[in-house]
């Protein structure tokens, strides 16, 4: 048996009706769709993390290395233990909560915040090992499970259209249509999206990757020939750095030593006793949001991949859950925020990714990006987000699995779908569906159909929001 045959046997390509080429393209697609986190996560965390004797640029590069390594660890577990095609990395939203709310807003030292993420990861590992996370997720009402995919789809659409500048802020209506005639980003994005949709409609393999790369290259070429000014269609400062320093120089000057962040984490463990109440609240918030964000993402992406069973459950879900738990724990130790499964994984699944080899490819490309951080950062975010629009449209097919004639299904499913994009939170969408389901079933005289666990889950969300809205930030400062 050759190496390729062994690889196919290990990842069970035959069982999933896939092959090496399909899985590789899927991995590349997911990587391109989520690689922005390599640049964005360090920028966000860099606002909150400072180290004596190091410049902000050096700290940002340390966090970049920590971001990449924590993602690689999580995806190795996903590939070899879970055999699922999901990509993982420090989560958007959770990193903003870490930086802007916990550290900058509440005054919690970043070292203590890392310790809180570490504790959250340990709790996740323990709960996953005993099957508690799987049990809780399987308590989700059926309409919520089937609505998650469509909810994430609308969320992805909204995120993508915003980054493309086709949806813009409006003081009167919150959002409105962007002006393609005056926005170079919107104009190029529309052209790139059209290319991607045409290729996808014609069944061209790798259509999403082709669309992302073609749009990014077009942006750089239009900048190089002075059609637009630097920074308009290219990431801010990237064109100047590439022109003045050259790619090889940029690669050679990356700060790889992240041990000062590790030392900060160790210091944070020793600072927990300074205010244990604040620490517990921070851990609880990280835990709650991450738990349901990850659950919603896994169910939503799995629905598109056809991985769910007839009850809307993901078989052996504890395996992919263990990947994010281990990634979170390791990530906190080396200097980054909570690691979670990425909704951008849906782009690779749409390209045909069905096994852990897709995750292995994503992890391998993340590792290689240690050498190519400047090149990865050269892909404009709007180009990557074109993929979210395409996948968001595809994920809307999940609405057909909902019984819209049944009030409990319609209300809980509808709230799940709409609250996600409107509050920019997967967990909030799940909360709306989970809390409304038992209430509507009870009103219909069908309370006996609601399990005790589903009532407890709904009450837990009520308690969470009570704490979330009642806590006074001024009382939570070190």
UniProtKB/TrEMBL annotation:
Keywords: Cell membrane, Membrane, Transmembrane, Transmembrane helix, Transport. It comes from the Archaea. GO terms for molecular function: purine nucleobase transmembrane transporter activity. It is found in: Cell membrane. Coiled coil: none annotated. Pfam families: Xan_ur_permease. It is a multi-pass membrane protein. GO terms for cellular component: plasma membrane. The chain crosses the membrane at residues 25-44, 59-81, 88-106, 112-132, 144-161, 181-201, 208-227, 247-266, 278-301, 355-376, 382-402, 414-440, 452-471. InterPro entries: Azg-like (IPR045018), Azg-like_bact_archaea (IPR026033), NCS2 (IPR006043). Belongs to the nucleobase:cation symporter-2 (NCS2) (TC 2.A.40) family. Azg-like subfamily. This is Permease. It comes from Natrinema pellirubrum (strain DSM 15624 / CIP 106293 / JCM 10476 / NCIMB 786 / 157).
């Amino acid at each position: 048996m050759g190496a390729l045959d062994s690889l196919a046997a290990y990842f069970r390509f035959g069982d999933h009706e896939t092959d090496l080429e399909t899985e590789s393209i899927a991995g590349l697609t997911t990587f391109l769709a989520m690689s922005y986190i390599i640049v964005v996560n360090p920028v966000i965390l860099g606002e909150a993390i400072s180290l004596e004797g190091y410049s902000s640029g050096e700290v940002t590069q340390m966090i970049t290395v920590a971001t990449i390594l924590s993602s690689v660890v999580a995806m190795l577990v996903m590939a070899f233990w879970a055999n699922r095609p999901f990509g993982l990395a420090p989560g958007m939203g959770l990193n903003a909560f870490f930086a802007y709310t916990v550290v900058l807003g509440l005054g919690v030292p970043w070292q203590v915040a890392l310790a809180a993420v570490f504790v959250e990861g340990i709790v996740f590992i323990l709960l996953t090992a005993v099957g508690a996370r799987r049990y809780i997720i399987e308590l989700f009402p059926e309409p919520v499970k089937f609505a998650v995919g469509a909810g994430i789809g609308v969320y992805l659409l909204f995120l993508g259209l915003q980054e493309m500048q086709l949806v813009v802020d409006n003081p009167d209506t919150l959002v409105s249509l962007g002006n393609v005639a005056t926005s170079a980003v919107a104009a190029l994005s529309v052209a790139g999206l059209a290319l991607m949709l045409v290729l996808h409609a014609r069944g061209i393999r790798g259509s999403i990757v082709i669309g992302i790369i073609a749009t990014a290259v077009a942006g750089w070429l239009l900048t190089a020939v002075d059609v637009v000014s630097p920074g308009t269609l290219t990431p801010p400062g990237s064109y100047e750095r590439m022109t003045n320093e050259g790619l090889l120089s940029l690669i050679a000057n990356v700060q790889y030593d992240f041990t000062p962040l590790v030392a900060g984490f160790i210091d944070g463990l020793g600072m927990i006793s300074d205010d244990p109440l604040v620490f517990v609240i921070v851990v609880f918030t990280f835990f709650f949001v991450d738990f349901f964000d990850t659950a919603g993402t896994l169910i939503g992406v799995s629905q598109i991949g056809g991985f769910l069973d007839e009850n809307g459950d993901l078989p052996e879900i504890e395996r992919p859950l263990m990947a994010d738990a281990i990634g979170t724990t390791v990530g906190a130790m080396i200097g980054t925020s909570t690691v979670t499964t990425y909704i951008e994984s849906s782009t690779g699944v749409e390209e045909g990714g069905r096994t852990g080899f897709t995750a292995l490819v994503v992890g391998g490309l993340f590792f290689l990006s240690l050498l190519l951080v400047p090149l990865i950062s050269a892909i404009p975010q709007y180009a990557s987000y074109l993929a979210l629009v395409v996948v968001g449209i595809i994920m809307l097919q999940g609405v057909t699995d909902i019984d819209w004639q049944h009030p409990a299904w319609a209300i809980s499913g509808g709230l799940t779908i709409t609250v996600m994009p409107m509050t920019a939170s997967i967990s909030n969408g799940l909360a709306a569906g989970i809390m409304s389901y038992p209430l509507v079933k009870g009103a219909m005289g069908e309370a006996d159909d609601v399990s005790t666990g589903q009532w407890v889950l709904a009450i837990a969300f009520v308690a969470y929001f009570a704490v979330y809205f009642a806590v006074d930030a001024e009382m939570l400062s070190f």
